[in-house]
Amino acid sequence: MKNKLTKTLLKSIEPKDKPYDVYDTELKGFILRVEPSGVMSYFYTYRTKEGARKRYRIGAPSNISPNQARDEAIKLSAEVIKGIDISARKKQAKKLAKAKKENTLQIFIERSYKPWVLAHRKSGIATLQSLKVSFPKFMKLALEDISVLKVEEWRNKKLSKGAASTTVNRQVATLRAVLSKAVEWEIIEHHPLRRLKQLKVDRTPRVRYLSPDEEQRLFDALEERDKELKLSRKRGNQWREVRGYQLKPDLADLHYADRLYPMITLSLKTGLRRGEVFSLCWSDISFTTDSPLVTVRAEESKSSRVRHVPLSPTALETLTKWQSQRDKRYQLVFPSESGVKLDNIKKSWTTLLKRAEITNFRWHDMRHDFASKLVMNGVPLNTVRELCGHADLNTTLRYAHLAPDHKADAVKLLG
């Protein structure tokens, strides 16, 4: 059946027992398909370069007028003349769209990135948690749809809420790493954030250490806290005894009521990172009188290198006392209540600092305190580097200004 496809014609079309086509008299290949159910669709028919006849569905009369469908057919005709197989292209586009829908950030992380990061990065669990907390609205996006603009908007929102530029840069770096792996594994062709620049930050290293007065207040607060914990346990057991309940272990004769005091002492006197302290085992500590030291295993060290740190008299005494009251069921020096590795002690640390009236001091700053006081006492920077386990001397140079008269002595060498 041939006729010019118009709105008037559509009103007169009647379905038949079998499907049939109405060929437009104005444009070759432009047809209307009529199904027995009455459903109608516009198609453009053509031959490929290989001679195969194909049909390309344009749409339904309920959504597009005959003139609009004809205009679309004219555009398709022009592409066919150029040798484009429009049906194959459409099929490929659908395939890519489906793959894109199935390849969201969340799916890629769960299926591919998570197994890799847990196997190859010590901080794998922390990295995955950071991604989950930092980018919840990105998780349902296809990898290619994570654009510079979207990340810029995300950064502006974070900064407006008071986030530090260094923190934002670090969070974006975790997202960049995921997308880099997607490119490396040929999941996506190009890195969507390749043009994104880092936020500018103050490159002056932050070195925070305790003044003598602050250090005294910190240890006074630890002493007071220990006394309160022991007294609280005593009162609690008296209450339990009256009621016939099982008593908890008495703390009165112990050197320390819990792990916080020895943990902080060790951190200040050895410069160990928090993760290194959490992972420390009794087998890593040598109590020999001639050269007591703590060994940081390669698998627990940030640089993946074994490090030996001598124990000062204070650190040795603290660990010796702590060992005398250890639970021999556990190999960890500072296990959690359940015996497994600690993941954080933020609440205890924050409460302690408040009690000691110390502000702007992080747990990691105890490491800065260790390095700073070594330099201020004339210890060579390279020795400090070795004790702290810095990968290169540039990291240690942040403490150079603390060396006593180091600049004046250097100038004197000129005569």
Give the SSE layout:
Layout: H1 7-12, E1 20-23, E2 30-34, E3 40-47, E4 53-59, H2 66-81, H3 86-102, H4 105-120, H5 124-134, H6 148-160, H7 165-184, H8 212-243, H9 260-270, H10 274-279, E5 285-286, E6 293-296, E7 307-310, H11 313-324, H12 346-356, H13 365-376, H14 381-388, H15 393-396, H16 406-412
Antiparallel strand pairs: 1-2, 2-3, 3-4, 5-6, 6-7
Helix pairs in contact: 4-5, 8-12, 9-11, 9-13, 13-14
Describe the structure.
The chain is of the alpha+beta class and 415 residues long. The chain folds into 3 domains: 7-91, Double Stranded RNA Binding Domain, CATH 3.30.160; 105-184; 212-411, Intergrase catalytic core (hpI Integrase, Chain A), CATH 1.10.443. It is built from 16 helices and 7 strands. The strands form 2 sheets. The protein has a 4-stranded antiparallel sheet with strand order 1-2-3-4, covered by helices on one side. A 3-stranded antiparallel sheet has the order 5-6-7. Strand 3 (40-47) and strand 4 form a beta hairpin. The radius of gyration is 35 Å and the shape is elongated. The N and C termini lie far apart (108 Å).
Backbone shape: elongated
Low-confidence stretches: none
Whole-number radius of gyration? 35 Å
Helix content: 40-55%
- As for the CATH topology of the largest domain, it is hpI Integrase, Chain A
CATH architecture label of the largest domain: Orthogonal Bundle
Q: How far is the first residue's CA from the last residue's CA?
A: 108 Å
By DSSP, the count of extended strands is 7
Strand order of the largest sheet: 1-2-3-4
